[in-house]
């Protein structure tokens, strides 16, 4: 019995020494919605797995601007002792943008692997509405901060308060290449929410069209905005294609089907 107790103590200590994982929920969601995913990662990685609530959860995920949410995320992480050393970070949908913004705006490297699932890294576009860029909407609707209208690109650059700076499309000191070790984008051609689907793998429409520009031909890549080209050339940017619908990304079924491709970056 003593030997068993000693073994369990050693296993617990080893798990505690391994890199923790922080999971961030998306829009219209709460950390409670991530508990199945949290348990799956816990079973497979045997290390601390934490889900982070943003403000009051579901309502704040929609009706608070992204920069406000990033600060709430930072305050929560800074209050947790064992997250003062680098950790892995996973974001689902909008949570991936929050996770990346946390990493980019940190004053030191905090994230080892940044893994996102169905995240609109290059923005979303469903229809044209210049009111989406009004100060009122930019301050009260989270998704307005990453709404990227290819037909109103100058207005997007001028009035959007979050994504242009995060992606280096306007003058910005933010960099990703020196803030994370690995950047992993999990996406799916079956995504029924993100438009364009390819935004989940860092691609978007060409200006004034709805023709998607491939990653390697994009201005983001060619001009090395936020250091994304450098990371790619150093084999630190990875794309993981799945067959999951957007709402399935955090399900055990989706995670289990693509288990090996996901876990290899978190070991």
Task: Give a verbal description of the structure.
This protein is an alpha/beta fold and 267 residues long. The protein has helices at 2-17, 35-45, 58-63, 66-78, 94-105, 135-140, 153-159, 163-166, 219-222, 228-233, 252-257, 259-263; strands spanning 21-24, 49-52, 87-92, 111-117, 180-187, 204-205, 212-213, 237-241. Helix 5 links the parallel strand 3 and strand 4 (111-117). The chain has one domain (20-122, 176-263): 3-Layer(aba) Sandwich (Rossmann fold), CATH 3.40.50.
Number of strands: 8
Return the structural class. alpha/beta
Spatial order of the strands forming the largest sheet: 2-1-3-4-5-8
Could you name the CATH class? Alpha Beta
Our Rg estimate from Cα atoms comes to 19 Å
Overall tally of structural domains: 1
Distance between the termini: 31 Å
CATH superfamily: Alpha/Beta hydrolase fold, catalytic domain
What is the tally of helical segments?
Answer: 12
SSE topology string: HEHEHHEHEHHHEEEHHEHH
CATH-scheme architecture? 3-Layer(aba) Sandwich
Any key phrases for this structure?
6-stranded parallel sheet, 12 helices, two-stranded antiparallel ribbon, single chain, alpha/beta, Rossmann fold, 267 residues
């Amino acid at each position: 019995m003593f030997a068993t107790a000693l073994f369990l103590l050693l296993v617990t200590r080893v798990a505690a020494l391994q890199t923790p994982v922080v999971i961030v929920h998306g829009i219209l969601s709460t950390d409670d919605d991530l508990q199945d995913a949290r348990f799956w990662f816990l079973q497979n990685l045997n290390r601390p797995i934490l889900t982070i609530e943003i403000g009051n959860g579901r309502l704040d995920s929609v009706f608070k601007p992204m920069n406000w949410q990033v600060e709430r995320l930072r305050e929560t992480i800074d209050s947790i002792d064992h997250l003062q050393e680098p950790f892995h970070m996973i974001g689902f949908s909008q949570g991936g943008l929050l996770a990346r913004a946390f990493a980019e705006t940190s004053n030191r490297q905090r994230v080892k692997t940044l893994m996102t699932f169905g995240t609109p890294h290059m923005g979303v576009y469903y229809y044209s509405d210049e009111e989406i860029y009004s100060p009122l909407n930019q301050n009260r609707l989270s998704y307005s901060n990453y709404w990227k209208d290819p037909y109103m690109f100058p207005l997007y650059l001028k009035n959007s308060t979050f994504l242009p700076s995060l992606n280096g499309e306007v003058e910005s000191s933010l960099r990703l290449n020196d803030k994370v070790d690995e950047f992993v984008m999990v996406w799916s051609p079956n995504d029924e929410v993100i438009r364009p689907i390819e935004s989940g793998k860092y691609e978007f429409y060409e200006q004034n069209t709805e023709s998607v520009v491939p990653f390697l031909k994009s201005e983001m890549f060619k001009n090395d905005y936020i250091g994304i080209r450098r990371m790619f050339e150093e084999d630190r940017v990875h794309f993981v294609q799945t067959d999951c619908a957007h709402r399935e990304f955090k399900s055990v079924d989706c995670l289990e089907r693509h288990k090996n491709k996901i876990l290899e970056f978190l070991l």
